[in-house]
């Protein structure tokens, strides 16, 4: 684990000391947008036109943020149009690596050893953390974006004329509500589990734990009244929650001490999680080996033995009856 300073790799853990033991996530820096015609998006430069075969995603199968982009690539039918490389789940002194002897698919574009070399290829003097996902433009040889929330918005519609897929997970009329749910889920749940797990003071941990489980209780109630987070159709908000929920019982309960209760113990959340998992194309994006291996093996300050747990054994393919439940309620 480390970061680049003026293009030079430094191996260092997150600084929580200056924040009373709290983990603060750094904002992503590379924020350009792919668009249908190459016009500029809300931030960054223009010139990134949606084209088949032009873009490449660097992901970790363990990472919940990168996982969002893989889900959108799958559900929007983009597999043949956007290529992917998977980093090793073992993120140690050199950060994310392309070590093919350690479960990485390698870097077919440049044969790089480390992900930080992709960042310095984009900008030789880059300063900042080296995170996944990274969306790379093979034509201009530069990074489009390293912000997952924006990458999924691009994948949601920029390639629609190429794929013919018109599903919209961020429909105009629901945007305000989706944005509100996203903010709540991000602060308390997506990032909340990290705030609990990376806290280095009892107080910082306890605060994160309390907000996390308060938020899960609220969503449990919400999902008793509504099939999905925003109405009766899946939206972006559901996929953003999904990537945390699917990791919860395997990693966050134990490794991050989010152990008030498991997702399996919530009636609605557990059934909802299954419905999302069983959506076409989604189960193939979930890799519990990479997920468990990454967290338990890489965070040596939390788990110095690097022993990876065998369990839990959960059948995410079992029946959930969400469709019937909400049809009956009509
Ligand atoms: N804002 C980013 C966050 C991505 C992120 O933090 N990824 C983690 C993996 S789960 C990472 O690469 N961490 C490496 C580091 O912080 O050094 C996004 O959502 O795309």
Concise structural overview:
Glutathione binds at residues 96, 129-132, 147-148. With 330 residues, the chain is α+β, with helices and mostly antiparallel strands.
Topology:
Layout: E1 3-5, E2 8-10, E3 55-59, H1 64-75, E4 82-86, H2 116-122, E5 128-129, E6 134-137, E7 142-145, H3 148-157, H4 160-163, H5 175-190, H6 192-198, H7 202-225, H8 236-252, H9 267-277, H10 288-298, H11 322-329
Parallel strand pairs: 3-4
Antiparallel strand pairs: 1-2, 1-5, 3-6, 6-7
Helix pairs in contact: 1-3, 1-8, 5-7, 5-8, 6-7, 7-9, 8-9
The structure holds glutathione (GSH).
Provide structural commentary:
The chain has 330 residues and is α+β, with helices and mostly antiparallel strands. It has two domains: 3-163, Glutaredoxin, CATH 3.40.30; 173-282 and 315-329, Up-down Bundle (Glutathione S-transferase Yfyf (Class Pi), Chain A, domain 2). Helices cover 38% and strands 8% of the residues. The chain contains eleven helices and seven strands. Strands 4-3-6-7 form a four-stranded mixed β-sheet, sandwiched between helices. The protein has a three-stranded antiparallel β-sheet with strand order 2-1-5, with no helix packed on it. The longest helix has 24 residues, at 202-225. The chain is globular and about 55 Å long. Bound molecules: glutathione. The site of glutathione has 14 residues, from helix 3. GO terms for molecular function: glutathione transferase activity. The record marks 252, 295 as: Lowers pKa of active site Cys. One of its GO terms (cellular component) is cytoplasm. Residues 171-298 form the GST C-terminal domain.
């Amino acid at each position: 684990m480390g970061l680049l300073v003026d293009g030079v790799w430094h191996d260092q853990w997150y600084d929580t000391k200056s924040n009373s033991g709290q983990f603060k996530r750094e904002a992503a820096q590379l924020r350009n947008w792919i668009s249908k015609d190459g016009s500029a998006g809300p931030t960054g430069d223009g010139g990134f036109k949606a084209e088949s075969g032009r873009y490449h995603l660097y992901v970790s199968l363990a990472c919940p943020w990168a996982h969002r982009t893989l889900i959108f690539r799958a559900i929007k039918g983009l597999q043949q149009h956007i290529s992917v490389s998977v980093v090793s789940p073992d993120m140690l002194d050199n950060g994310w690596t392309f070590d093919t002897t350690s479960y990485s698919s390698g870097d077919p574009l440049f044969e790089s050893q480390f992900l930080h070399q992709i960042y310095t290829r984009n900008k030789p003097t880059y300063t900042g953390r080296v995170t996944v996902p990274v969306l790379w433009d093979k034509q201009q040889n530069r990074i489009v974006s390293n912000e997952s929330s924006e990458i999924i918005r691009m994948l949601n519609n920029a390639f629609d004329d190429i794929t013919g897929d018109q599903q919209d997970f961020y429909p105009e009329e629901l945007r305000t509500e989706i944005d509100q749910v996203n903010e709540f889920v991000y602060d308390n749940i997506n990032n909340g589990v990290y705030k609990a797990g990376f806290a280095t003071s009892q107080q910082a941990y306890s605060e994160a734990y309390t907000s996390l489980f308060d938020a899960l209780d609220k969503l449990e109630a919400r999902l008793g009244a509504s099939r999905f987070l925003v109405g009766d159709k899946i939206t972006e908000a559901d996929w953003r929650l999904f990537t945390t929920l699917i990791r919860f019982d395997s990693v966050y309960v134990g490794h991050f001490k989010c152990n008030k209760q498991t997702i399996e113990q919530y009636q609605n959340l557990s059934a909802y999680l299954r419905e999302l998992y069983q959506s076409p194309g989604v189960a193939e994006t979930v890799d519990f080996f990479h997920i468990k291996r990454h967290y338990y093996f890489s965070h040596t300050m939390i788990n110095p033995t690097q022993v990876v747990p065998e369990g839990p054994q959960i059948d995410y393919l079992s029946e959930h009856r969400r469709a019937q439940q909400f049809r009956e309620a009509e």
